[in-house]
Amino acid sequence: MKETTTILGMLMLAGVLHLTAAVIPPSSEPSVALVSKVILDVTRKEVGKDWQTAKRGEILSTGDKVKTGNKSLAIVKFKDNSLVRVREQSELTVTGDLRGSTFSKSVKVDDGAVGFNIRKQKPDEEFRFTSPTSVASIRGTGGMFTSRNAQDTLTVVEGAVVLTNNKSSASVEVKAGFTGISSPDGTIETRPATPEELTAAQNAAQVSDKENKLEIDLRDKRGNQKQLKIDIK
What we know:
Elements: H1 2-23, E1 31-39, E2 42-45, E3 52-53, E4 59-61, E5 65-68, E6 73-78, E7 83-86, E8 91-99, E9 102-117, E10 127-130, E11 134-138, E12 142-148, E13 151-158, E14 160-165, E15 171-175, E16 178-182, E17 188-192, H2 195-205, E18 213-219, E19 225-231
Parallel strand pairs: 9-10
Antiparallel strand pairs: 1-4, 1-6, 2-3, 2-5, 5-8, 6-7, 7-9, 8-9, 9-12, 10-11, 11-14, 12-13, 13-16, 14-15, 16-17, 18-19
C-alpha cells in the first residue's frame, strides 16, 4: 500500500512539474545585431553564459557582449545596417528596445574604442553609445567613441552628436571636425579635433562588413604615431 501511494505521489508531482514548465514561456531577448566580421582574437558572451569564441554571422541579442584582444577587430552590424567597429582590446554590450515599429539601439562601451557609421534614425528611434561617464545620442553620423580610465572622447567626422555627462547632466553638441571630452568629475567640453584625432576617427568610421584589413597604431622611439595596415585573407 505504501509503495502504491509513493508511486502515485511521484506521478502527481511529475504532472505538476510538467504543467508548470508548460505555462512558463522560454526566455528570449530580442535580436539586435550580428557579428559581421571577426579578425584574430574576438569573443562574445550571451546573457547567463560564459565567454566563447565569436564567429561571423552569429546573432547578438540584447545584453550580449563582444570583446577583442590585442591586435584584433570585430564589426557588429545592426538591423538597420548601422556598423560599429570594435577596435583592439575593447569590450561592449549591445541592447535593443522594441516599441511598436520603432527599434532603438544602445552600445555600452565597457572599455576601449569603437568606430561607427550609423544610419539615419527614424523620428522615434535613437542610437546611443553609453559608458559609466557619458551618453552619446546619435541620429545618423560617423566617428569614433573611446572610453578609457573613466574618461570619454568622441570625435565626429560627419553629422553631429549630442554628448552628455552622466554626473553633471551637462551636454555639448559635437559637430563634424570636433572632439568632445567628458570626464568623471562632471566636466565636459568640445574643441576642434587635432589632425591625429581626425585621422584616427576617419579610419575608424570607415567600417565595412566586407573589409579585410587590420589597422595597428604604432609609435616610434620619438613618440611619432604611424598606422600599419595589414591585408587579412
